[in-house]
């Protein structure tokens, strides 16, 4: 895994900040298009609103504007906002801080009006109106650099119409001097700045489409250039970019050739000259080739925009300046350019492509396969005596990082030049002052060669500057005093006054101050200005904490638990410090963006408290309260991490960042004795940062090479979960990676920390089978050990439940009633349930239907995963499957035999499968019993609400039963008081309607009284008046001769609503309406279906005293329907008495069930 690094040290505790870039296998997701202006030609990238998320600015040719798309930080963008470019035919755009306010601005080239428009940024993602500056003829490309090295950005333009380049020197306020021209080739189409001869002065490379070559103009460092030197390219070169393509520390050129359909590679010699062009095929009509490490192998690849084939070609680099065959990814119509940036902050370079024949920009997110990195065992290389610091740099400019080691005990700096493979020869030492304690690398004389700066804390109390020769050697030290016995212990390099030359900030431990040494522009430091800070400063770092474009300082202290912030004025001066609490004995301060919000944060290493303090910046120069992390894998995800050298434990700790400013627990790697500082150069050039640890106790430097393999993911499955004790369970581990190839090796299966066994991967799959897991819950993991290409990984825990071989089964059975009558239909509901702990697969449900039920059939449905046979009959003897919590429900229907006299008793049972036991067998059977009423052939129980059950009659209430109870032959009416408490409960009176015979009786507790009116027929009217508190009353019509007759009854209260009607089987519903008033009444009977729709209606018109009757057959109601009935009338409550019953007159004796109409007071 690759990270860019910036290291800092702390005596006994040293700290480095890592900006992560995971290693990948190259690949891009399908492009997503974003609407911009008309004919977009170029894309520039920057953080325009300073939120830590990259945004885009797009130059639109035909709409003469710039579209700004603010990034969301996840690879997506907000809708565009357009800004006028200030000219016509806008075809190029660049980003820079042209007025030095810390906010990014835009420069847009319009070749229709030959102007450059400068749009000053407001820092919130919006821009001011364009200020225009004259450009050359048909300027079509621009590049930004500080060509005269005054600390102010300048612009260079390629002028297609005048065959030259224009140089616009910046004034530092967003304006520019009049253009100066320098000749180029014919029809220059593209321009790019770089230090091609490594002298620290920006040069220019210009692609000339008319002369089929590239012109190189070496810069003089004052804004002027030497005459152009041409180098051949392909046919019609229209795009040029520079990068170190062969990893030798020298810039090379990649030139896109429009009509030869290739990219020319010109390897740089490092002196401003280039080798002959080597072509590599691309797509059709390539327009621009941009470099990036798209697969994270440390080698530069190329992304090429192919105008004619509507795609981007990716040419993977081999690391030696040669490239593999292109792989294409589709974009929009006629892509004219390509920009490389990490839009989703995952450490992987993505692409943005403007489509010139459309109004879109295509964004391709890099979805390459991430690698996981760990460190190999340390290899030590000798240094001087008591090495305190190691700082990387490319001192011989060969592209491989070297090391400078500060040796306090021997008063020198040891330089270890990299062999190019991560190994180092014997060091070369350079003397400095006494007790050197601080070390920094910079280019103080601006010659393109890295120099060394050393703070000497001993008697010399000075700063040594060793100028680099550029071949890995250094000149003698030039010493700058900073005050006698002031103990300078740390030094930081930065352009503190904005003049383009690096200045020095020195922490003076003995003088409680920071000394500023301003560079005179030639690498000399003639004066020292000091600023008072706290006592014993030991660390200093440079950053822009308030985002104003002016360098600030952060200072740490040995004896205080705080740091100081000095906000720079931009001219090399600083105001009074502001303090923030940290840990104790600070010895290092580092700057980074730990929560990815675009605002600089601080990491402070604390020696005495053995931790790192993180102070998140607010972006205005203030900081949140410190959060401390104990010190003690390498980065993976584009989030900054921390590496700490631990003097007391002789190791280096890595704290992985979470991306929100917090960090994970430290992971430690052994180094030498007395580890004092750490840096993270990629010493072997594989794209992954390695560890370099200076060890003050063993006088050496430890190199820990970073080993990266493709990330894997291990998934774990179980063949049976939950399983029953003794059953075999097979665990299957599947190891996958998004990279090409298949992981090999071994997977270890674990139960917690106990190893169960291993399996060998075959096609990425390994299995392990066991039957020995004890009852309980087991946390099973699969641990893949990795191979040479694929990294180890561990599955998420799989909770395997092993349960005893038990089923707690239960069964219920009911027909919803306690009694029935011969010839009546009957329906039982039988429910079998399993509450576990084991699933009951193959349980048995049985029910032998009693002889008193005929024509029995059943159906069954499962719930919760339960399964059963769908239907059968008459008996149930069914094998069912009942997972834990599941049930099966049987519905058994039949007809009560006409000859049955004894109670119906029906029992259902459930039994567990073979081999299983039921810990609670008492609920494995259920019985339902129905009594058969006492009469020779039938019994009808009458109650006020029409249900066949007992009823409660309130004290003092009178209930009337029957307006048409016909008493004949040997029938009698039997009444019984069932309360057992009220004595006497009330009075029963029978009125004979046809023969004047009346009679009454009083019911005592638990008494039964029968009234057998004399005569051979007639209609009896029966009333019962309760005289106690309440009476339980039951009545029945008894047929002593065995030939029951229909029996119905009526109520004379408000009759509006009936809860039921039926035409099922041979049943019909019968209705009678009687007008009890002296005038004519009208009403309507409405039969409703179960869903509420109208089935039939019957109009009722009743003169005074008249009775009208009807039934469902007469009303034309279809068979086998049920529902509810509603009757409304225009009289007062109780004006119409309604009598209703559901009856079957096709059997003998007939079956009649009374139905009561309930009052609905608001129905009318």
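Q: What amino acid sequence fits the structure above?
A:
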């Amino acid at each position: 895994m690759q990270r860019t690094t910036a290291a800092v040290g702390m005596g006994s505790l040293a700290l480095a900040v890592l900006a992560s870039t995971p290693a990948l296998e190259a690949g891009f997701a399908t492009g997503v298009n974003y609407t911009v202006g008309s004919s977009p030609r170029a894309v520039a990238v920057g953080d325009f609103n300073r939120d830590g998320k990259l945004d885009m600015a797009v130059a639109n040719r035909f709409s003469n504007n710039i579209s700004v798309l603010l990034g969301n930080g996840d690879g997506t963008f907000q809708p565009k906002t357009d800004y006028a470019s200030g000219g016509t035919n806008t075809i190029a755009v660049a980003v820079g801080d042209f007025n030095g306010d810390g906010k990014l601005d835009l420069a847009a080239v319009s070749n229709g009006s030959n102007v450059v428009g400068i749009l000053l940024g407001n820092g919130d993602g919006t821009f001011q109106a364009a200020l225009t500056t004259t450009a050359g003829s048909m300027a079509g490309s621009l590049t930004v650099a500080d060509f005269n090295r005054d600390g102010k950005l300048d612009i260079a333009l390629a002028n297609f119409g005048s065959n030259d380049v224009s140089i616009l020197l910046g004034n530092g306020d967003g304006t520019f001097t009049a253009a100066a021209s320098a000749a180029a080739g014919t029809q220059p189409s593209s321009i790019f700045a770089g230090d091609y001869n490594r002298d620290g002065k920006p040069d220019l490379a210009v692609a000339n489409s008319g002369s089929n070559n590239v012109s190189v103009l070496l810069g003089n460092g004052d804004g002027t250039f030497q005459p152009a030197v041409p180098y051949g390219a392909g046919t019609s070169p229209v795009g040029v970019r520079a990068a170190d393509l062969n990893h030798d520390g020298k810039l090379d050129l990649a030139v896109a050739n429009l009509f030869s359909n290739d990219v020319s590679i010109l390897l740089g010699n490092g002196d401003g000259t280039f080798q002959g062009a080597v072509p590599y095929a691309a797509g059709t009509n390539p327009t621009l080739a941009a470099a990036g490490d798209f697969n994270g192998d440390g080698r530069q690849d190329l992304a090429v925009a192919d105008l004619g084939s509507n795609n981007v070609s990716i040419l993977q680099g081999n690391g030696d300046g040669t490239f593999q065959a292109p792989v294409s990814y589709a974009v929009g119509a006629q892509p004219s350019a390509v920009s490389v940036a990490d839009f989703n902050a995952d450490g992987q370079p993505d692409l943005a492509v403007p489509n010139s024949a459309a109004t879109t920009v295509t964004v391709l997110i890099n979805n390459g396969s991430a690698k996981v990195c760990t460190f190999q065992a340390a290899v030590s290389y000798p240094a001087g005596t008591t090495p305190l610091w190691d700082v990387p740099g490319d001192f011989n400019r060969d592209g491989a990082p070297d090391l400078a080691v500060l040796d306090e005990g021997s008063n020198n700096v040891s330089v270890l030049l990299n062999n190019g493979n991560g190994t180092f020869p014997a060091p070369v030492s350079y003397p400095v002052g006494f007790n050197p304690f601080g070390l920094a690398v910079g280019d103080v004389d601006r010659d393109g060669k890295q120099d060394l700066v050393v703070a000497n804390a001993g008697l010399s109390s000075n700063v040594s500057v060793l100028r680099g020769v550029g071949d890995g050697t250094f000149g003698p030290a030039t010493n700058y005093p900073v005050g006698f016995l002031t103990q300078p212990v740390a030094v930081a390099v930065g352009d503190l006054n904005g003049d383009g030359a690096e200045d020095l900030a020195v922490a003076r431990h003995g003088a409680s101050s920071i000394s500023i040494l301003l560079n005179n522009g030639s690498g000399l430091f003639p004066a020292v200005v000091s600023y008072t800070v706290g006592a014993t400063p030991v660390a200093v770092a440079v950053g822009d904490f308030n985002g104003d474009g002016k360098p600030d300082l952060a200072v740490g202290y040995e004896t205080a638990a705080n740091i100081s912030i000095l906000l720079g004025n931009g001219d090399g001066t600083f105001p009074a410090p502001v303090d923030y609490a940290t840990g104790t004995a600070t010895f290092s301060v580092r700057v980074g963006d730990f929560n990815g919000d675009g605002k600089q944060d601080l990491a402070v290493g604390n020696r005495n408290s053995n931790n790192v303090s993180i102070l998140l910046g607010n972006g205005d120069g203030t900081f949140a309260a410190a959060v401390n992390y104990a010190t003690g894998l390498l980065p993976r995800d584009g989030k900054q991490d921390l590496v700490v050298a631990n003097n007391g434990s002789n190791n280096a700790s890595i704290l992985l960042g979470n991306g929100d400013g917090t960090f994970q627990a430290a992971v430690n790697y052994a180094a030498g004795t007395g580890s004092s500082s750490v840096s993270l150069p990629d010493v072997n050039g594989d794209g992954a940062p390695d560890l370099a640890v200076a060890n003050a106790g063993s006088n050496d430097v430890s190199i820990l090479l970073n080993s990266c393999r493709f990330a894997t993911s291990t998934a774990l499955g179980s063949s049976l979960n939950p399983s029953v004790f003794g059953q075999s369970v097979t665990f299957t581990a599947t190891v996958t990676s998004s990279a090409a190839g298949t992981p090999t090796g071994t997977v270890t299966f674990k139960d917690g920390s106990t190893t169960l066994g291993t399996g060998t991967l075959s096609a990425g799959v390994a299995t392990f089978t066991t039957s020995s897991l004890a009852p309980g819950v087991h946390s099973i993991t699969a641990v893949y050990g990795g191979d040479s290409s694929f990294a180890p990984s561990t599955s998420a825990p799989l909770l395997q439940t092993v349960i005893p071989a038990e089923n707690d089964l239960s069964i219920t059975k009911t027909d919803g009633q306690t009694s029935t009558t011969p010839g009546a239909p009957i329906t039982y509901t039988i429910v079998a349930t399993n509450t576990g702990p084991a699933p009951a697969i193959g349980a048995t449900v049985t029910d032998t239907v009693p002889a008193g039920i005929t024509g029995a059939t059943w159906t069954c449905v499962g719930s919760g995963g339960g399964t059963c046979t769908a239907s059968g009959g008459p008996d149930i003897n069914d094998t069912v499957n009942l997972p834990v919590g599941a049930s099966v429900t049987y519905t058994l229907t039949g007809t009560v035999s006409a000859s049955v006299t004894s109670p119906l008793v029906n029992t259902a049972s459930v039994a567990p499968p073979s081999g299983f036991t039921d810990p609670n067998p008492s609920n494995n059977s259920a019985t339902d019993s129905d009594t058969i009423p006492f009469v020779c052939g039938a019994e009808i129980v009458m109650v006020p609400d029409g249900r066949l059950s007992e009823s409660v009659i309130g004290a003092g209430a009178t209930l009337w039963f029957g307006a048409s109870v016909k008493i004949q032959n040997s029938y009698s009416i039997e009444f019984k008081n069932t309360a057992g408490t009220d004595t006497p409960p009330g009075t029963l009176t029978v009125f004979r309607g046809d023969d004047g015979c009346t009679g009454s009786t009083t019911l005592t507790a638990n008494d039964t009284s029968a009234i057998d009116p004399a005569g051979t027929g007639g209609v009896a009217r029966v009333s019962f008046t309760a005289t106690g508190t309440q009476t339980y009353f039951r009545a029945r019509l008894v047929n002593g001769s065995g030939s029951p007759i229909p029996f119905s009854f009526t109520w004379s209260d408000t009759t509006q609503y009936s809860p039921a009607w039926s035409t099922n089987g041979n049943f019909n519903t019968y209705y009678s309406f009687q007008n009890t008033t002296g005038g004519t009444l009208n009403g309507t009977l409405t039969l409703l279906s179960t869903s509420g729709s109208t089935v039939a209606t019957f109009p009722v018109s009743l003169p005074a005293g008249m009775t009208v009757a009807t039934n469902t057959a007469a009303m034309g109601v279809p068979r086998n329907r049920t529902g509810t009935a509603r009757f409304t009338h225009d009289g007062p409550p109780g004006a119409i008495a309604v009598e209703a019953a559901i009856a079957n007159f096709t059997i003998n004796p007939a079956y009649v069930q009374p139905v009561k109409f309930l009052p609905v007071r608001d129905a009318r």
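Q: And what stands out in the fold?
A: Residues 985 and 1003 are 6 Å apart (CA to CA).
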